[in-house]
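Reminder: ligand-aware prediction takes two inputs, not one.
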Amino acid sequence: MLIDGKATAQEILNEIKAKVAVLPGRKPCLAVILAGENPSSHIYINRKIQACAEVGILSRRIHLPSTATEEEILQQIAKLNADPTIDGILVQLPLPGNINPNKISLAIRPEKDVDGFHPINVGKMLLGQTDGFLPCTPLGIMTLFERKGIEMTGKQVVVLGRSNIVGKPLAAMLMQSTPRSNATVTVIHSLSRNVKEICRQADVLIAALGKPRFVTADMVKEQAVVIDVGINRIDNPSKPKGYEIVGDVDFENVQSKCSWITPVPNGVGPMTIACLMGNTLKSYLLSLDKAA
Ligand code: GUN
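Here is what comes back for the chain with guanine:
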């Protein structure tokens, strides 16, 4: 069965909109910083700002040139950190090569780090503490499992990819001793051996490695759950734009083997944005608690 991430994300956005509508006083606000002209980053940022407008969260877009220095970005972050009307700060990745993303993540106040990239929030996630922020893409995937009633307890879950944004945090979340987790997790990376054999053992196979159609039907167990995090642009002269967006899974051939599968687009992508809205509202509500 197809997991309609767009529909589930819309349900979440509607719930957030209803909660924001009844907030007394100021509305939550998300600040997004973009450095440079990466076309995909522009698209993602626009979607995030559009989602803010849809749920009634305010947004502030800060666009710096590709020549921006680390110091300039850090100055912007310092201003937003100090501004009590800003609840969330997000710096879109990837950053231009001269900028160290670790330094940027560290500069954002952990209480406003709605991406969940600050080491304090990464630590809280590993420890299973719930007052931090979980990164939006893995959180979106966990939320899909929860809302679709897809049980993780005791399952063999294989995660393809060990990025700081998806693979690593997702593995950490799946292994927690909470009712929605409790999985047995294997993480596959570029130096792993016997990749196909390991994937074939998976009850749940999650592809987050950024290689177009990497997961083929022979790598998938019958009735497995397959989650596709990939967003790859590949040339295709027969398409109107001359390219198409495909996932990390060979959807056409894998679909019939799965009990559940996410499509690309309209699978995990919209869930990432819905969870960002959720994190921004969480930050706002936590700041109210602290002020009380
Ligand atoms: N680039 C790709 N995914 C993400 C994300 O979740 N957050 C940010 N800030 N940049 C990204």
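The chain has two domains: 26-110, 136-269. The first strand starts at residue 29 and ends at 35. We will return to this case in the review session.
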